[in-house]
Amino acid sequence: MPLFDEGVALDSERDLWVGLGWVGGGLILLFWSLICPSG
């Protein structure tokens, strides 16, 4: 695995956090809908 430039590493880290944010948000909405199905 080649070493990344700082820019590439920062972009990858940002994309990783954005992905985790979407997954976390989806799980929160899923649990919320299960706990409070009436809305």
Structural topology:
Elements: H1 6-35
Shape: rod-shaped
Helix and strand run: H
End-to-end span in angstroms? 47 Å
Mean pLDDT: 81
Tell me what portion of residues adopts beta-strand conformation. Answer: under 5%
Computed structural class: mainly alpha
Specify Rg, calculated over alpha carbons: 16 Å
- Count of individual helical segments: 1
The profile of the biggest β sheet is: none
Keywords: Membrane, Transmembrane, Transmembrane helix
Transmembrane segments: 16-35
Provide an overview of this structure.
This protein is mostly helical and about 40 residues long. The protein contains one helix and no strands. It has one helix spanning about 5-35. The longest helix is centred in the middle third of the chain and has 30 residues, at about 5-35. It is rod-shaped and about 50 Å long. The termini are far apart. The model has no long low-confidence stretch (mean pLDDT about 80).
